[in-house]
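lol forgot to send this yesterday, sorry. struct tokens for the thing we talked abt
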């Protein structure tokens, strides 16, 4: 039997050995093979966290105090939101061009006399998938300016949405361009969502080709609020089929449309009137070849429609791979007045120096120019990356070149005449993500917001947008 003194001596010797090892072990670790590295924490990190966590209490208190309840009768009146600038730093939208958001704000004010539908497209990476952040913008914009429905939806979404539930029949597949172009696709017509869905693969048809049948069902839940449920139209965007496809449309249990989808083309629309009390719809398809399905839209004919386009894994450098003529057709038809681009998070881990940050921002400049050309009547708002943490010893710290990446993106955005919202500063800046994780406002990957955290970011974003709109109203009164 070991005596207590022997156990104590053994423990002290182990700690002494570990301490000596921490002094002698290389700080950068020892590479073992091409994909494995041995690391050892520094001695200081064994007795406490190396990095002091950021205090975000004032930011969270400010978010809770923002008053986003306002009258919805007169959009010409200034929308009242309590001023939080005294306690929240750098939450304003930044511009060097006074007209950066003018097209969008002009369209909002004109809704009172010309109540046609205008569009807000929110492109982003996995931070917005599942309708996070976008759902709050939609809720508030439709509450103030009118509009119904969740807008554009993929027939085969990457992530489940809190608003729409999709059920696919046999044979469906997704073809993306937003991370890299799917080599199975023989063209570049990827549509407004940067992806295609089909119920059969690409193949050359013959007279003996078999007839294929499949279906899709979509249900809108109460999670999006009353306005999201009150849409009156379902539009199906498609193109590219080699033959006609028979399509039956069911609104609830009732068959209300049966007709052929045309072959060919890269921008075709099938439209159905809905709103008979059911928020479940089914489309049944029969044909030898599947069309390219670009999107379904659940919408109204007036007000603001806000579309969530979550592109998991994307760095935002894909617009050059989409047929720009087709993209312009979509933007023109949808009457897009604001395009939100929210990227940078997926590029951050691979940025190892200042030059790489500059190069990435340069790629984004070319993408912004493509979007501006395709949507010349739309404003562009870029949302920079959030804080992201990487483990250093036992502590989580901001990625080394995240601030450099943010700075270069902001520079390019402002030089391009667009608006910039700094999500990194908004949430507290350097080393703030660990505090968001502690508050259960972000996931333990130290990258993604939780639904509660996304809601707080959305509140700050919307209040900043409305503050800009208030300034616009005062200037143009």
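and heres what i got for the seq, position by position
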């Amino acid at each position: 039997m070991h005596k207590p003194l022997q156990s104590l001596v053994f423990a002290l010797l182990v700690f002494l050995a570990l301490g000596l090892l921490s002094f002698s072990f290389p700080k950068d670790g020892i590479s073992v093979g091409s994909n494995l590295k041995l690391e050892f924490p520094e001695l200081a990190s064994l007795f406490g966290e190396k990095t002091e966590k950021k205090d975000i209490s004032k930011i969270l208190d400010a978010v809770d105090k923002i008053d986003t309840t306002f009258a919805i009768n007169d959009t010409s009146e200034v929308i009242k939101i309590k001023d939080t600038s005294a306690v929240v730093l750098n939450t304003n939208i930044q511009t060097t061009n006074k007209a950066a958001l003018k097209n969008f704000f002009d369209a909002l004010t004109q809704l009172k006399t010309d109540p046609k539908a205008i569009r807000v497209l929110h492109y982003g990476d996995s931070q917005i998938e599942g309708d996070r952040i976008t759902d709050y913008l939609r809720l508030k914009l439709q509450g103030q300016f009118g509009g119904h429905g969740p807008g554009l939806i993929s027939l085969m979404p990457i992530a489940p949405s809190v608003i729409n539930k999709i059920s696919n029949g046999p044979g469906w597949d997704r073809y993306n361009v937003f991370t890299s172009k799917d080599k199975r696709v023989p063209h570049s017509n990827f549509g407004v969502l940067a992806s295609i869905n089909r119920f059969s693969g690409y193949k050359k048809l013959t007279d003996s080709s078999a007839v294929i049948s499949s279906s899709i069902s979509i249900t809108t839940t109460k999670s999006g609020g009353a306005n999201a449920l009150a849409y009156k139209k379902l539009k199906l965007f498609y193109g590219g089929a080699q033959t006609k496809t028979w399509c039956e449309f069911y609104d609830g249990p009732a068959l209300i449309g049966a007709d052929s989808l045309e072959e060919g083309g890269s921008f075709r629309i099938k439209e159905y009137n809905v709103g008979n009390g059911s928020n479940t719809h089914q489309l049944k398809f029969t044909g030898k070849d599947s069309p390219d399905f670009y999107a379904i839209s659940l919408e109204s004919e007036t007000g603001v429609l806000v579309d969530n386009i979550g592109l998991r894994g994307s760095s935002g450098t894909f617009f050059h791979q989409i047929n720009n003529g087709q993209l312009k057709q979509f933007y023109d038809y949808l009457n897009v007045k604001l395009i939100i681009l929210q990227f940078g998070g997926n590029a951050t881990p691979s940025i190892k120096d200042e030059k790489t940050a500059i190069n990435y921002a340069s790629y984004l400049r070319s993408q912004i120019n493509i979007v501006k050309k395709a949507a010349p009547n739309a404003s562009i708002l870029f949302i920079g990356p959030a804080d992201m943490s990487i483990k250093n010893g036992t502590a989580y710290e901001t990625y080394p070149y995240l601030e450099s990446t943010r700075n270069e993106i902001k520079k390019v955005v402002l030089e391009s005449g667009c608006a910039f919202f700094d999500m990194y500063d908004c949430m507290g800046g350097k080393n703030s993500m660990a505090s968001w994780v502690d508050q259960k406002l972000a996931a333990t990957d130290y990258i993604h917001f939780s639904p509660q955290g996304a809601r707080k970011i959305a509140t700050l974003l919307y209040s900043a947008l409305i503050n800009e709109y208030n300034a616009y109203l005062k200037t143009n009164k």
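DSSP finds eleven helices and 21 strands in the chain. anyway ping me if u want another try
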